[in-house]
Structures are given as C-alpha cells and as structure tokens.
Write a structure and sequence with these properties.
It is built from 6 helices and no strands. The chain has about 110 residues and is mostly helical. Keywords: Membrane, Transmembrane, Transmembrane helix.
Length: about 110
C-alpha cells in the first residue's frame, strides 16, 4: 500500500512543492503510473484477503519494479552525485516487500 501512495501521491507532492502543472499532466497521462498504482492496491487488497494469486502477482510485480528501478540507479550511478531519494525509496519498498513476503509461511497463509 505504501508503494501506491508513493507512486500516485508522489506526483501530487511534487506538484505541491514546485507548482508545475506539467508534472500533473505528464505523470497522470502515463499509463505506467496508473498500472503500477492500481496493481499495488490490488496486491495489497488480495494479500489482506489471503488470496494466493495476490502473493504471486506481488512477487512478480515487485521483482519487475525492482529490476526497472535498479537498472535506472545503476545507469545513473556516480560517486560524485548519488541517486535521488525517490528511486532509492522505491527500491527500498520493493526489497522490503520481497523480504517480508518471501518466506514459505507467508505464502502458505495465502490459501484462498
């Protein structure tokens, strides 16, 4: 759920800090923003209801997003200029989700 807040709410926070209306038009016009936010909400709801498909979808989506963010961080990595806080936050959220949801007892608790 925290990831959906970061994805969908991050655009609003950026707009509030900069006042740039183009930020809203650009971010909310991208289907990837909506897909990532809605998948995160769907996974959170499914895990609350203990659905097995939500565990698998969450694992796949988190791994894919971690790959996307990780490749961006490695492409833009420099010791003189560290990566921005946003990508590091997303990578941290994805790693935390994978570590917490990966143990076998979590997967077996999703039995519906």
């Amino acid at each position: 759920m925290a990831y959906s807040v970061v994805v969908l709410g991050g655009t609003l926070v950026r707009f509030a800090l900069t006042g740039d209306a183009f930020t809203l038009r650009f971010s909310f016009a991208q289907p990837a923003t909506w897909i990532a936010g809605l998948v995160a909400i769907l996974v959170a709801w499914g895990l609350l209801k203990h659905f097995r498909w939500a565990w698998w979808l969450g694992m796949g989506a988190a791994a894919f997003q971690l790959y996307r963010v990780g490749s961006w961080i490695f492409d833009h990595f420099s010791f003189s200029r560290p990566p921005a806080f946003g990508p590091l936050l997303v990578a941290g959220l994805m790693l935390t989700f994978l570590v917490l949801a990966f143990p076998s007892h979590v997967r077996t608790s999703c039995s519906r």
